[in-house]
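During the first year of the project, the team set up a workflow for recording each protein of interest as an amino acid sequence followed immediately by a discrete structure-token representation. This format lets reviewers and collaborators read both layers of information side by side without switching files. As required by the reporting guidelines, we include two representative entries from the current panel. The first entry is reproduced here exactly as it appears in our internal archive.
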Amino acid sequence: GGGGGGSAGSGGSEASSSPALSFEDLQTQRVMANIRERQRTQSLNEAFTSLRKIIPTLPSDKLSKIQTLKLAARYIDFLCQVLQSDELDARGSSCNYVAHDRLSYAFSVWRMGGAWSLSTTSH
């Protein structure tokens, strides 16, 4: 019968592999791969830092990356609800800072499961 599909590549001789790279070439490839991976990681971390600055958070928040993404998705849902409710037009449009503070507060309340009506925060 047919042979079982074991690990064919392990234990093969160097001659059977594709054109043999010198030790220096392999080292260079490894170094370059490490540099690319570091740059990817740094870029990803910078993106998360930017995202964390945008999403209103609670003082108790110590968010992992997945928690940050989930919270960002909830914030987008929340903002869609706010836009649909048209309350911003009637209220804090005179001052962007007030509107942003209200949104942050309302999102925190909404996150905790309370009512998120913006009118309750007007002074």
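The second entry, processed by the same pipeline in the following quarter, appears below.
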Amino acid sequence: MIQSFTMELIQPNDEVLIQLPSETTKLVKIVPDSIIGLGKFGSFPANSLLGRPYYLTWSILDGENFGLEPVPISELNSEKLATHTVPAATTSSSSDPAKASKKSKNTDSSTPSGVDSPGLALEDTAIGVQVGDDGEEDDEDVALDAGMLEQELEREQKLWEAEMKNNRDIRDDQTAQSMTWQEIEKLKKSGGTGSGKEIIARLLESHAYIDKKTAFSLAKYTKRKTNKYLKRIRVIPADIPNFTNYLITQKEPLKMLEIRDEAMGLMMSWADVKWGGRYLVIDDTGGLVVAAMAERMGLLTGEDARAPKKVSSARKRKREETDDGKDAKEEEEASVPQVEASEAPETTETAQKEANDHPFNTPIKPKTGYEQTTIPNSNTITVLHTQDQPNLSLLRPFNFDTANLINTTTHPLSTHLLSLSYLQLLSPESDVTLERPPVIPDPILRTLKSVKRSNYHRKCRRQERLLNIVSSTRRGGFDGAIIATGMELSGVINTVTPLLKGSGQLVIYSSSVEPLSEVVDWCSTLRRTEFMRIKKESETSSSSSSLTQLQLHTLDPDNTNPDIDPATLETLKSLPKLPAHTSDEYFPIDPTNLLAPTIHTSRVRTFQALPGRTHPLMTSRGGSEGYVLHATKVFPILEGKVEARGKFGSRKKGGGGGERSGGGGGRDKEKGKTSAKLNGKKEDVMEVDDLD
């Protein structure tokens, strides 16, 4: 079945990347009925791009025809081909016009005019035999003597020297160009699409050393003048690959950890980021990793995300329409929970105390006067950060602003992007934002003004949402975790690894390879073997605890963590501890939790492909390579916990018709003897050497 292809068009309020003639890129927002200024390259109305496809080249028009004009593809192709064409004057040289015309007659018609092929001409001349129209050899061509062959070789040598000439005799100063800047400004003011082309043609004609330039020098000179005098732009979408290249080449790459598009693709592939999963991310790149994950999960753009102002005004109008009957509605909603509470069974004092002391592990009850807030169970991105708010400023070009969530409520990330701090995850009782606001009785709440009531409901909804996020995160079960941070990795891995489910993918990015090589060494076979030996020796059969691995890691020595009851805490303190865990010197992480950590790297290098001049571009950006570590989360199983059960199938003995039971006979482990059944009868036990 043939599927129709839909071309992506530029929509209002879209963020696009405009490639300028100076080989730089500018991020621009297409606001309707506005003017987009590009500095010395001019300006144009934003409406000229609305509804147009991406990846088109436009010419900026000034004067009466103010706007944009598309550049035909045929014109762009002709300019590209012209830069690699040798002038035809250098290829027309022959001492005998008749033979030259005859040779040109027999030349392959597929060779383009103006392009000489020295290798092909030399091969034809060396053969010295040409076939006529009748299929017979021409007598004149057969009679070519050694002198004619030498002349042809000399001609080819001259052509080769002409192509490989140098720029020694060129004086690149003001005297080389006879065209004045007054004439150039006069042509600029004439306007029109042909003014730039006319300036370039006049510059080439008035150059005193244009005929002495090599083909490569002439192509570079023409390209430089074209970029300077032709006001052309190219509009490309601000997707993740283009946006990443724009940030790393023209912004501050250190703020985004110098992450490249190739490394980003490796991270998304090894983490198996896809729609429907739950992922944990530590992003110190300003939100670039979150944007790449959202693009793969279908959360980066939404249908109504491009028009935030319209949605905001609609919500405001709806709020004004329902303002009159708001008090009556709140009274009706407030009466419903009271009836349910009266019919509910009474709880004991112990249960009440546990519910108050453990707000992060108990289900959250809906408050009165507003609807209970919920979070999605799948297709979510949970951001773990160190500050009060996560730094996700790079999500603004995708119409999602964390500082102005009121205007981005229709964006998919507003509900599927969850964030919490290390303090909220490891010690939730110490975070003031998770404290429940003081409960206001319903009679007093109804007497307050609408602004105070809405503020109270907003605080309650925020506190409930944070509690739900903390509760779901502490339960774990994430499909994968991506770490892109400059923090010390041992503490980060110890925090993130227990939250992954079995076979969950752990991906770590680092601009240098040294931190990742340390992680690989921490999970080496020798460390894992020694860790299991020490752990087996320190185990006690009487110790049993229901604490999860996360609770063991976040154990508070001051006994202030409400997730651990006092009885279990005393039992845990009395257990023997591993020597390695006291200082984390030999075992910074648990080496039995990660399987096969591997380091990957990938980088695309742009090459200049020219005859005899093929090398990487000297103007390409350097910087760090970027490395990605990938590992799989596994659950360690102690020795003796795995058993192999089943019945070994018997196989027939070839030739004798007998059977050998047990897949090759039973072996006496104590004496190293083997017994076999031959012809259905048990024979004497044969003593054999145990080669094992």
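For the second entry, the following points were noted during internal review. The two ends are 61 Å apart (CA to CA). The first helix runs from residue 73 to 82. Both points are flagged for discussion at the upcoming steering committee meeting.
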